[in-house]
């Protein structure tokens, strides 16, 4: 059984972190596919639109050069998963406004 304090923490996490990255690197927010994917390169984190029928591969500029996709406050000082989620949401809002 999970202690009460731990249960509250897990509920808090599930309410605020609504991003998932599947094994094909596709990004989902709130259970919905975004049409974006992510990869890590030596130069940093790259968010891109995968090539598909009627859709060309395109990389998207992000505010941070590198994100930790495993931690919210990594010891490396890189932006964490919560910041990555916020920046993906901002990217999607900017694309829908254009």
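^ structure tokens above, recovered residues below v
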């Amino acid at each position: 059984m999970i202690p009460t304090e731990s249960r509250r923490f897990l509920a808090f996490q599930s309410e605020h972190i609504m991003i998932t990255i599947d094994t094909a690197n596709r990004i989902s927010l709130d259970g919905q596919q975004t049409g974006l994917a992510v990869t890590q390169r030596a130069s940093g984190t790259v968010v891109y639109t995968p090539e598909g029928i009627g859709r060309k591969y395109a990389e998207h500029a992000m505010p941070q050069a590198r994100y930790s996709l495993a931690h919210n406050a990594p010891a490396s000082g890189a932006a964490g998963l919560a910041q990555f989620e916020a920046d993906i949401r901002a990217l999607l809002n900017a694309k829908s406004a254009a």
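The first strand starts at residue 19 and ends at 21.
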